[in-house]
Each structure stands twice: as C-alpha cells, then as structure tokens.
Amino acid sequence: MNAKQIDQQTLLRDETDPLTHTPVHLLSLEKVGKHYGNIIALRDVTMAVDNGRVTCVLGDNGAGKSTLIKIIAGLHQHDEGTLHVMGDVRKFNSPRDALDAGIATVYQDLAVVPLMPIWRNFFLGSELTTGFGPFKSMDVQAMKEITKKELADMGIDLRDVEQPIGQLSGGERQCVAIARAVYFGAKVLILDEPTAALGVKQSGVVLRYILQARDRGLGVIFITHNPHHAFPVGDRFLLLKRGKSIGYYDKKDITLDELTAQMAGGAELAELAHELEQLGGHTQALKEVQAEVADVTETKPESAPRHA
Amino acid sequence: MANTATLPPAPASAGDERVGRRSPVQKFLGRPEVGALVGAVVLFIFFASVSQTFTQPNALATVLYGSSTIGIMAVGVSLLMIGGEFDLSTGVAVISSALTASLFSWYFSMNAWVGVGLALVVSVGIGFINGWILVKTKLPSFIVTLATFLMLTGLNLALTRLIGGSVSSPSISKLDGFDSAHAVFASSVSIGGVEVKITVFFWIVLVLIASWVLLRTKVGNWIFAVGGDANAARAVGVPVTKTKIGLFMAVGFCGWILGMHNLFAFDAVQSGEGVGNEFLYIIAAVIGGCLLTGGYGSAVGGAIGAFIFGMANKGIVYAQWNPDWFKFFLGLMLLLATIVNLIVKRRAELK
C-alpha cells in the first residue's frame, strides 16, 4: 500500500494550544468503542481534531459514522476508550454538555424547527435576553439583526429573517445551521453528511462554508460517504468500515484515487463483476464494473486481501 | 460576540427586491388566529341581528363570563398544544381541585385558604405527574391523560362519597376565610354600572401573560420548538422534558383558578361534574388556530376560541332558542373556523 497511516503523536507535533503553547489536540479520541447490547457499533477508533483543520470521516452506510458523531455530540456515551477535550478526559451526558465544551453539531436533519422563523431557529436554545428576574424577555431586535448579519457574513443573503425556516432550500438551511454553530463560539464543528441531499452546485456552496469555518480557526469534523467532497477540503481522513477504523491518513500521504479505492473496496467490486458475469446479459454494466475493478486494483494492489 | 450595542443597523432592512410587498392585510392574514377572529365577528353580527338584548352591556358581561370559564383553561391548553401535547384530564382536574379544597378544609374544619393552598399543590401536581409519565414512558399524551382522566373521575366520585357521604361536597360557607376566598375567586367588579365577574379579569391577565411568554421569552421559543420538532430542540440544547412537564403544570395552574372559582361561586361542588369539558378547552384552542400536531398557534387565538363559545352558548339563550342547539352550533363553528384557518393560512403563505 502506498498511503501510510498516521498516528496521533505525529499529528500532535504540529499542533499547539493557542493559549498555553503546549502540544494538545482540541479534541481527540483514543480507541473509542460503543456497543448497543450485544451489537458492537464502533470499536477502536482513534482520531484527532485541531484548530483550523478539517478531519473527514468517511464510510459507507452502517460504517459507524453516526455512532461516532453521536458520541462526540453527547447524544450517546462511549463504553470504551477515552475522549479528550484540550487534553482533559471527558464524557458528555447530554448535547448541552458537548455544546458547553464548544462542540456544535450540524445534523443531517439540521436540527431546525421548520415552522419557526429563521431568527428563532438561529438562537434556539441560546436566546439573548434583556431585563432581569421574572421580567426577563428576549432581545428580539438584536437577535434578528445578528441573524441577518451573521448569515450575510457567511455569504447568505436572506430575504426575511421572519420567514419560517422550512421555506428555505436544503443548502440554505445547512448554511444557517453552520452559521449558528460558528456564531455561538463553537470550537469544534461536526457536520453530518451536509452534502448528502444536495445537488452539485449546492454541495459546492456548502463545501465553501466548511472552508470558511476552517479559516475562522474552527476544528471541523466532516462526515461524508463521498470522497470527492472530502478530498478537496479535508486535512485528515478517517475511514470507517463496519464499525472499525480501516485507515487514518494525512492529506500529504494519500491521493484522491487511493482514498476512493479504499472507500469503494476492491474486493466487493470484483465480486460484483463476477456475479454479473455469471448472470450474463448485463454486458454494459459488467464492463463498467470491470473497468472500476481495474482502476481500484491498479492504485491499491493489496486492498483486496486485506478485507477478504 | 453577543455585544449588541456595537452592531451596525441591519443593512438590508429597508427592503429587498426579492421580497414582494406584503401588505399589512396579508401579514395579518398569516396570523394563526385569523380564522377564529373572522368566525367571532360573523357570530357576533349574527346574534346581534337576531336578538335585541345580545348587545346590551349586561348581556355582554354574561357572555364574557361564560367565555372566561372556558378561556382560563384554554390559555393553558393552547400553550400545551403549541408544545405538541394534549390533555384530556383537564375537565375533571378542575373539579378535583375544587373538591380537594372543599373536602380538606371541611373535614378538618380549617380556614378555607388552607384548602385553596392544598388544591394548588394537587392541581400542579396532577400536571406534573401527567408530564412526568409522558416524558418517562414516551407514550402519546392521548393515552397518558386519558388514563389520568379516568382515574380522576373515579377518585372524585369515590373520595367525595367516602369523606362527605354524598355525591356533592358539603357546604363550606361557614368556614373561616370563605368570604375572602369568595371575594378573590368569585366576586364581581362594577364597571359603569355593569357587573363583570372577576374571572373575566383573570382570563385577560392569563392571556396577556401567556402571549408575552410565548412571543417574548425564551421559554416561549422552547414551547414552539418542542412542539415543532422535539428532537431538533433537544439537539440544540433546549430542555425538552422540563418544558413539557412545565406546560402540563401550567395547565394544572389554570385548572386550579377555575376550580377555585367553581367552588367559591357557590359553596359546594358536584363530584361528577367536569366530564366532557376537556373537549371544550381543546376545541377553543383549535378554533383559535393551534395546530393539533403542535408548533403553531397563539394564546390570543385560544381566547378568541373561548369567546366564540361564550357567544354561542349565551347567544342561543338571548335569541330565545332551545339550548339543545348549542352543541350543533359548536360543531359547526369548529368545522368552519378550522377550514377558514386552513384556507387563509395557505393563501397568506403563497403570497
């Protein structure tokens, strides 16, 4: 195999805490595992997130990506391994805990309430208030203005912040969710398949926001099953398969083709080609798959026996 | 970051070419309570035209009183429905509250206010239990509160007979504190020679507080959010369970006020009363534009819904019709108001 895996220590050499200048990861996982009853959803996952870096988590359906982010976001608790935030061992009991630690998640379903206006959604759970005691009320004017300004900074020109958020397009909603996380001082931003339901153009828009968030110094965890989306923006790549890590690479050590090959799994493709051949008739499909197999095995010869 | 003082004024607030001009009328039509308001106006004109006495100040005061006895509960029920839940136990919970106050202070011959205080604890406690079971079991609120409804109905009858020996609670008019409690919960205020029941003021104050909470506090934001999408709300850090339990407790509080009025307006309560009233409160909220699925509605809407009730209820009497028609009217109003809501909302959103 050409691509060489990296370990946490090597990564750590380049990272320092902006305040104390000691080498420490913003967020790191060490051999984290999770099981639901006797089902092992995730085991032995090691990864790190740092300021101004995008860590991509790649994997097919059921690879354990969702379980991984639920652990980091505080919706589930891990059973094995350790989770460090700025070097401290942590275990989040609720999403609130994770939020307080500076970890914000933009979920696939975006965690927005469709019937509520954009500004109410933007500040939901962290409303600005004025007054004191029982007369504490929301600072509606300020909240509307900030929503408008923050979204404009992200390049989203909104028509009307009073609009129910359900009327926005998928990409726009995604951007509102990202802008919200950035505004509320997230240090780590988790994006759960932000491009999965989007068209080509909108995906591009969202990828640009990921880079903007990175340039603002956030540590971004980008979860996706599309290596073509991950490679241009990612700094590190963690590949998951059936709940296990099958690779952890730095960008300089891997190419897009290698990444795709790892994701696609040469063995499965070869098997599919074989099946199609036996069935007969599917000449066109067969050719395509065979070409794909040739492609995969060429770039990464020993991947097939590895997962057999 | 949250420093609001240094914020520049919103740059594009002057107008955006992509926003078609929405006239104030269209904006108004997008409000949740429009259907109810249209219904209320139509009904008012209708009764005013068929009955000369309907528009007399005294008659209006009576209509308002009838509305308030539903409206007080509709405030809590509206908030609960916006929060995505349902309470079928409200009708009998009102009577439970009144029975608690009367039986307790009568049995121990205590000051009536002790019973009133205990009733508050019981009412809010029933709300808490409803909410707690709901969030713990994740059962639909329909099932949980239907169970509470049945249990409370049974408890009301059984305990009243056990303690008081009758289907009606014993008279507490001789107890200390009865007069002051009567003054607080069941007196009338004279405005320009017209006697207006104090419940009307309770009602108005509750609607004002509920509207303020809903539209201008963060708790209101949470109520909309837990009703609109509880999972999304939890994910962004809204305390979903606390909000839901709190809503049930608020309904309990409204039930306490109405229960105390029912008790002190006379001096005794019938233990079998209240069954079926829960639907009146829910209907008032629905007519007022609260979505059955949660996440949308207003406290003012619930109040208008209750006012429609009051008008239909008393208007039939003033028009000298047979009161048997009341329920028919109610059904018709419910259907028409919700259809108008639907149409108006769709049209307003398309514009």
TrEMBL record, chain A:
Keywords: ATP-binding, Nucleotide-binding. Residues 24-267 form the ABC transporter domain. Transmembrane segments: none annotated. This is Sugar ABC transporter ATP-binding protein. It comes from Arthrobacter terricola. One of its GO terms (molecular function) is ATP hydrolysis activity. The keyword ATP-binding applies. InterPro entries: AAA+_ATPase (IPR003593), ABC_carbohydrate_import_ATPase (IPR050107), ABC_transporter-like_ATP-bd (IPR003439), ABC_transporter-like_CS (IPR017871), P-loop_NTPase (IPR027417). The keyword Nucleotide-binding applies.
From TrEMBL, chain B:
Signal peptide: none annotated. The keyword Chloroplast does not apply. Its main location: membrane. The chain crosses the membrane at residues 34-51, 63-82, 88-108, 115-135, 141-159, 245-267, 279-309, 325-344. This is Xylose transport system permease protein XylH. The lineage of its organism: Bacteria, Bacillati, Actinomycetota, Actinomycetes, Micrococcales. Part of the binding-protein-dependent transport system for D-xylose. Probably responsible for the translocation of the substrate across the membrane. One of its GO terms (cellular component) is plasma membrane. It comes from Arthrobacter terricola. GO terms for molecular function: transmembrane transporter activity. Keywords: Cell inner membrane, Cell membrane, Membrane, Sugar transport, Transmembrane, Transmembrane helix, Transport. The keyword Plastid does not apply. Pfam families: BPD_transp_2 (PF02653). It is a multi-pass membrane protein. InterPro entries: ABC_transp_permease (IPR001851). It is found in: Cell membrane. PANTHER family: ABC TRANSPORTER PERMEASE PROTEIN YPHD-RELATED-RELATED (PTHR32196), XYLOSE TRANSPORT SYSTEM PERMEASE PROTEIN XYLH (PTHR32196:SF32).
